[in-house]
Every structure is written in structure tokens, then in C-alpha cells.
Amino acid sequence: MCQLVEDYAKEKIREAKIDIIVSLLKNGASVDLIATSMPDIPRTMIEELNKQLKATI
Asked: Higher-confidence residue: 57 or 13?
């Protein structure tokens, strides 16, 4: 049960970081800056989010 709670918390933190990354990208932050600032998020994920944002604009 404890592992389940821990996994849930980790997923919620990851989702929050993704929301922050999307917000930073929308406000003009570079992929390099974000990748350096959030080393636990793979650069490829940041690049993919950036591509998705550009495709919707």
C-alpha cells in the first residue's frame, strides 16, 4: 500500500513538472534552459512537448 501511495505521488509530481514545462515553453523559455533546469526530465520529452506546442499554434 505504501508503494502505491509513493508511485501516485511521483506521478503527480511528474505531471506538475510537465505543466510547468509547457508553461515555460509558451512563455518563450528555450528547450536548453528547461533541460538544464530540470535534469530529471528527459530532454527528448521537452523537445517533444515543444514540437506539440508549435504544431498547435
From this structure: 13
